[in-house]
């Protein structure tokens, strides 16, 4: 959708380049039938490409003044291209680069301390293999907080370089990354509140035989409401289990749903935001939900062209690994008015038709 106008130009250019060998083969053919067989399909494809813009759609082709505001940027596990994911440094980097919100993943330790960890094990993002080599496959929630807080959660980042476009880190950032530890949920929430940042998180239920297996939501709420002091309106509550109970004890949370549903059902559950993979949402859906005052957050959007599509489609916010890059985008890429698009389309078709005609005439 975002590059449709330029794909048309590219296809026409290729057809113009092919016109010379097609014309050459047609001239060398002895029989009229052979010439028709060679030239006919070529001209049919060319005509089809001339007319294809009539059915082409891109949300970034719009009248001046109809583009909505730039989507807010929510740091996916912080700023994982600049710092180890889900660490204090990662969220500080998101804040430093002007992110509007913070996204994370919450697990509960064996002794009931909610902490930030995406994977089910500690193998990828900590030094568990060096400290407890026999426990690398154990679920992260089965460790006590005293054990978890002693692990290093940053050296892997400098060693593995999880993103190809990370660039080089300063010596100070490298030293800071090497000294990161697993981050408690309560500290994460205090940081977000102090900087007036929205928070959204996936809450993972502990495994079987875990002491908080059946009270995981209650324990998380206890930390949010009683220990962190974060203002409720900053919390985008995503977990669907016990949603009615959560609303009763924390009416200030912004109720968020992780899947599409009829507008009537969402309003009945007091849903104010949808959190969806960008592949699941169209501009029509975004518009439909927006009319009911339900905003849309799309994840994970890293590339400027994809962010441009989300912007043109009317997304309210995106979750991204690249807050530091997308923050600098002042308008969508490939944005143009219908008049500019029509001029580009007509000029491309006329120029290519003239060139093809000259080549066949020669």
TrEMBL record:
Pfam families listed in its UniProt record: GDPD (PF03009)
Task: Name all GP-PDE domain ranges.
Answer: 71-330
Q: What keywords were assigned to this record?
A: Glycoprotein, Hydrolase, Membrane, Transmembrane, Transmembrane helix
- Record PROSITE patterns: GP_PDE (PS51704)
Compartment(s) where it occurs, according to its Swiss-Prot or TrEMBL record? Membrane
Q: Which InterPro entries match?
A: GP_PDE_dom, PLC-like_Pdiesterase_TIM-brl
**Is Repressor tagged as a keyword?**
no
In terms of SUPFAM superfamilies, this protein maps to: PLC-like phosphodiesterases
Q: How does it sit in the membrane?
A: Multi-pass membrane protein
TM spans (from-to): 6-24, 36-57
Q: Which BP terms in the Gene Ontology apply to this protein?
A: lipid metabolic process
GO molecular-function terms, A-Z: glycerophosphodiester phosphodiesterase activity
Give the top-rank taxon of the lineage listed in the UniProt record for this protein: Eukaryota
Gene Ontology CC terms: membrane
Q: To which protein family does this belong?
A: Belongs to the glycerophosphoryl diester phosphodiesterase family.
Tell me the protein's name: Glycerophosphodiester phosphodiesterase domain-containing protein 4
Q: Organism, per UniProt?
A: Eurypyga helias (Sunbittern)
């Amino acid at each position: 959708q975002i590059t449709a106008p330029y794909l048309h130009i590219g296809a026409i250019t290729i057809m113009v380049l092919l016109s010379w060998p097609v014309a050459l083969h047609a001239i060398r053919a002895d029989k009229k039938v052979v010439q028709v067989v060679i030239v006919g399909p070529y001209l049919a494809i060319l005509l089809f490409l001339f007319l294809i813009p009539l059915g082409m759609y891109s949300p970034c082709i719009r009248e001046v003044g109809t583009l909505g505001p730039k989507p807010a940027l929510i740091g996916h596990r912080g700023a994982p291209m600049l710092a180890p994911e889900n660490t204090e440094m990662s969220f500080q980097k998101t804040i430093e680069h002007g992110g509007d919100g913070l996204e994370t993943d919450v697990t509960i330790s064996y002794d009931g301390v909610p902490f930030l960890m995406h994977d089910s094990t500690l193998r990828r993002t900590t030094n568990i293999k060096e400290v407890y080599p026999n426990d690398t496959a154990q679920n992260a929630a089965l460790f006590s907080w005293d054990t978890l807080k002693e692990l290093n959660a940053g050296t892997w980042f400098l060693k593995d370089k999880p993103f190809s476009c990370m660039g080089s880190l300063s010596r100070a950032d490298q030293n800071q990354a090497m000294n990161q530890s697993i981050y408690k949920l309560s500290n994460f929430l205090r940081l977000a509140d102090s900087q007036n940042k929205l928070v959204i998180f996936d809450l993972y239920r502990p495994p079987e035989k875990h002491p908080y297996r059946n009270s995981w939501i209650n324990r998380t709420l206890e930390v949010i409401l009683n220990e962190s002091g974060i203002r409720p309106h900053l919390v985008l509550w995503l977990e669907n289990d016990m949603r009615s109970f959560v609303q009763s004890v924390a009416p200030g949370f912004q109720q968020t749903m992780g899947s599409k549903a009829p507008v009537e059902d969402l309003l009945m559950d007091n849903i104010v935001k949808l959190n969806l993979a960008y592949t699941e949402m169209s501009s029509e859906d975004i518009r439909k939900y927006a009319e009911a005052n339900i905003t849309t957050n799309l994840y994970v959007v890293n590339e400027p062209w994809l962010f441009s599509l989300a912007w043109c489609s009317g997304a309210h916010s995106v979750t991204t690994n690249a807050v530091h890059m997308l923050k600098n985008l002042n308008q969508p890429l490939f944005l143009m008015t219908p008049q500019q698009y029509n001029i580009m389309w007509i000029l491309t078709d006329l120029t290519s038709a003239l060139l093809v005609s000259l080549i066949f005439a020669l």
